[in-house]
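PROTOCOL LOG
Step 1. Enter all chains and additional molecules of the complex.
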Amino acid sequence: MTEPETMPRDEGCLLITGASSGLGSEMARRFSASHRLILAGRDEARLQRTRSTCHAPERQLIWRHDLMDVEGIAGQLGDFLAINDVRVAGLVHSAAHLSVLPLRSLTPDMVLDTFRANVFAAMELVRTLTKKRVNQQRLGAVVFVSSIASQFGAKGFSAYSASKGALDALMKSLAVELAPGVRVNSVLPGALRTAMTESMFDDPGMADRLAADYPLGIGVPADIVDAVEFLLSEKARWITGQQLVVDGGRTTNITA
Amino acid sequence: MPARDIKPETWRHILAVNTEAALALARNMARKRVCQGGGSVVFISSIMALAGGAGSVAYSMSKSALHGLARSLALELAPIGVRVNCIAPGFVRTPMFDRLERGWDAAQRDAVEALHPLGFGEAEDIAHAAAFLVAATGRWITGTVLVVDGGYLAK
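Step 2. Run joint prediction.
Step 3. Record the structure below.
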């Protein structure tokens, strides 16, 4: 048997959503060494900044799209792929909307915004990339960046937790429906220090409490990138429909 | 073997090999000078640790006990930088699998394979997952179960 490839089959691109921030930009930097990327995000200037940190920046493509516009995904992504004459072999949905608010302060619109970015966009991206006309059956692996919040409760996290729970349920159904052609998995990170979570770490009391709950300490984006890379690769060719928890032992800790 | 027929010495043997040996081996990681600078333990459990099947009580019990062992050992060994995780495989083509397969007719074999959206696995698939967990790539992963089952448990 030949040595497995390190990345998805075929020569298609890897599409990374949320590529302008924390985890997404770290993945872009790393995966650009082995792959041509499509960096997706809202802000052109920030996407350019991510691209400038990539290997061979001139090869990497930028798809500027606000994922809150779920209805626009199919048409605009389809056009983008056609214009650039590229196909997508791997998808990483890393974009996420997080607002930590008590239930009494949440409005239905806020909850819908969270679901739009975290769940509906993920579904629409996979739906678009599995259209024969758009992507010619090139999609081989999908990784959703979920959260341990999909499994456990936390004050102020109701909308976010619900959306990540929905994302993981979506992942399992897609894994079953799209097998054997497309593998679909999620990675469930614990608390990472990124721009999205920086406000939680600004409060020193909160930062100390969080650190105490993590047997291996608080994570950094690179810890998650390795797990995403593994799931995208041919080394994970028999893994689909799984939630891979990468949390420094947080959810195992009965004293937390 | 049905629960009403299994003999105590049989289930004790299964527990001794599958579970107690894992504890007896892994607890040495905590001894002085065994793993300076951290380490990693991987237990191979099974999808039978997470799902049930008639006739599999002892195997299922022994494999789910590994998950409990891994969780608490992970917490105990985290301060010395030792990580502990499980891999739960589906049906993988191994000599144990061949023995099982001999008891099936073609229709039964196809039915079992059909339970895996990606078909039966190869030992190499499990080896890749173990390598990922043991290496630095798994440095922030402890106390978890990585299911490698071709989609068996997703449906």
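Step 4. Note key features.
The longest strand of chain A covers residues 183-189.
The radius of gyration of chain A is 18 Å.
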